[in-house]
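Researcher: Go.
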Amino acid sequence: MWPVEVRSDLRSGIKAKQQDDLLLSQRYLQRAWDTAKSLPLQTFGSEPCLKVSGIAIKLAEVLEANGAPDAAYTVYAEALKLLQNVRAADPAVTASKNLWYSSPLPDNLEALERSMDSFSQEGNTETHHLEAQSEVVEHDRLTYLSTNERVRSIALAQKLGEMAYEYGQPQEEEEKWLSYAAEEVFRILADMNLLVRRNGDEDHDVAVSMDEGNDTELVLPPWAMKANLAAPIEALGSFYVRQDKPNYALTLYRFCLIMIRDSPSTENTCRHAQVLNNLAHILFKLTDKSADDEDMATAEKLALQAAGLAQNILMPVDHKSKGDLSAMSEDPTALCAYVLPVALFNLGMMYEELGKGELAKRSFSDSYIWSVKFGVKDATLNASAALRRLEHASTAKTEAAVKSS
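Model: Structure:
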């Protein structure tokens, strides 16, 4: 049950949105958001930050739909700031300032890598707190924010990072949001002992659903309701790839793989495939492009694994129409539909570099077929250009041989 102070405006805003009257919806939801910010959090009952941020997300969703991304960006940032302020008041946060995961990324990536090496030991089933076992004080760390509320802050930070990239914000702005999301993932994993371990404990999942209580009126977008804790790590890794910082990206991708390797859902299998392909792409860029280069061999192996995982997910699925990737946004196989043609294209590039023309042609052809099927336009264009390039090279080679004979 929503507080009486916001109930009427909230319901009117939701109703107006359902009737496609975005301006009226915006007016009501803005008033609900302004009122919510002025009320004591206790007014909202259990998990109040989840409810208050839900109002902000609903408003921002309407603003985006109404062509006002800057205003939506501001509202998302306000909602995240509210969660951060409550989080900062937790005495456990102050008590843990000396822990490595309270330092900003990427300053602590070396410490993270050392922790991963220990964490990845075969047969190591002891509880890991990312080098913080002896330093964490005995305290209920969820006194001020619940796990759901902390995960909501991650979802908001990642959304802000995505918007910063999409709308051309400074790179520092994008890095700020993505780093916060990744840092909070590390803190949650350490605090709640949710790291996926080699002991096969199925209770540890990297996907966390957020419940808005018993209220069914406030229907929020999927990203705000279910967060995959591996996603922010991967997103920050991808940011560092674009910033030409491959070593940062490699560390984050490795950690991402550790998180998802024992969570065999369709979503995590597709994410696993994407991270493997990302690693393959980085290693390929770092190699000297020779057949005896170990990184080249590893890149090829990882790309093959990525393509295999994605294809295994997609083969049993009946995708009847062509170019339907955009229609699969809520489908857990959608990521695999994107990864498969991209991984096959990367394989083709590796084979072409190694002078394996037939294998390259087959990989590019397969990439083209899958990209057309799922409407992955960039992959279609890239595979088509690669096939033309191979054809031209083959023709030129044949003509040169004829002239020399």
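Model: The beta strands are 207-209, 226-228.
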